[in-house]
Design goal:
The chain is an alpha/beta fold. It is built from twelve helices and eight strands. Helix 7 runs parallel beside helix 12. Bound molecules: ligand BJW. The site of ligand BJW has 34 residues, from helix 2.
């Protein structure tokens, strides 16, 4: 990478001992998974969050909501990790004390080789019984033929729990719902203890997740942001690298260890 700021960012990464990589939908954009708030291509530009991504919406029209999440799950299943995901997995190998905290409900970090990513907003691949607090969900997955060609408006009835017959719901965190407690606690602890936090591809407007980089900054860590657009984290970040994750991250990683190997 050219320029003083990218070089300084690479030096900070090469020297760091505890790194948190905090990701949002932008890390998966170049894998073809849509973000939420980008003006033309984001999900919320085409779909109504209130009708699809709330518990009230699921209770009102479970077939519509389940069908929409099956469409998204199929899209993600067909996507591949991009060089940004791979660079993050490399950071985890290079810096053993590093933690990936993601708001994403896809599995592209895991498929790129990242271990133990903390998912703050759940997963498309972990549906659960709406009465799951009482017992674990067991159900038959949607048969292949049914979900193979879903399209965005298709209604698909959700399966029912094999133990109690309640509806199975997508295993994601909707607005107004609490984040999984263990995940949030682990993310806050990692942010408070890191010396460097990379925030990648998030608009940082959804709370409490958006607090994670701020916690790191307040605890004395350096924050580096990778995003083609400005965000509220511009003020918190010591370095703002304007660009796409799939280009910026591999270059950053290559420079980080080229520089430390030279010293
Ligand atoms: C690229 C790129 C490239 C593009 N390379 N970059 C405090 C203040 C105000 C409000 C609240 C508050 N605390 C709580 C709230 C309410 C609410 C909230 O935050 N609302 C705000 C939006 C106003 N929060 C909640 O409701 C949360 N729950 C909660 O607080 O519960 C309290 C409670 C406690 C105890 C009991 C009960 C309740 C829950 C939030 C759940 C969020 N859920 C979603 C949907 C998940 C399911 C699904 O996928 O359908 O999570 S919303 C959506 O936004 C999704 C994402 O994880 C999340 C964040 O989005 P993200 O990842 O930042 O994506 P985008 O699209 O916004 O940004 C993409 C970025 O990438 C952009 O900046 C691009 O420029 C960039 N980009 N291409 C790099 N190639």
């Amino acid at each position: 990478m050219d320029g003083v700021l990218p070089r300084r960012a690479a030096q900070l990464l090469g020297d760091a001992r505890r790194v948190v990589i905090f990701t949002g939908a932008g890390i998966s954009a170049e894998s073809g998974v849509p973000t939420f708030r980008d003006d033309l291509t984001g999900l919320w530009a085409r779909f109504d969050a209130q009708r699809l991504a709330t518990a009230e919406a699921f209770h009102a029209d479970p077939d519509l909501v389940w069908g929409w999440y099956e469409w998204r799950r199929t899209r993600v299943s067909r996507a591949e990790p991009n060089p940004g995901h791979l660079a993050i997995a490399t950071i985890q190998t290079r810096v053993p004390g590093s933690t990936v905290v993601t708001q994403n409900v896809d599995d592209l970090h895991e498929r790129a080789g990242t271990r133990a990513a903390i998912h703050l907003h759940g997963s498309l691949f972990a549906p659960r019984c709406i009465a799951a607090a009482a017992h674990p969900a067991t159900f038959e997955d949607t048969p292949d033929g049914e979900a193979a060609q879903p399209h965005e408006g298709r209604r698909i009835p959700p399966p029912r729990c094999a133990s109690c017959s309640a509806l199975i719901r997508p295993g994601v965190v909707w607005f107004g719902e609490a984040l999984p407690e263990a995940a949030l606690t682990a993310a806050v602890e990692a942010a408070a203890a890191c010396d460097l936090l990379l925030t990648v591809g998030t608009s940082a407007v959804v709370y409490p997740a958006a607090e994670i980089p701020r916690i790191a900054a307040r605890s004395g860590a350096t924050v580096i942001q990778i995003n083609p657009q400005p965000t509220p984290l511009d003020q918190v970040s010591a370095i703002n690298l304007r660009g796409n994750a799939a280009q910026v991250l591999p270059a950053l990683v290559a420079d980080a260890w080229e520089q430390t190997d030279e010293r």
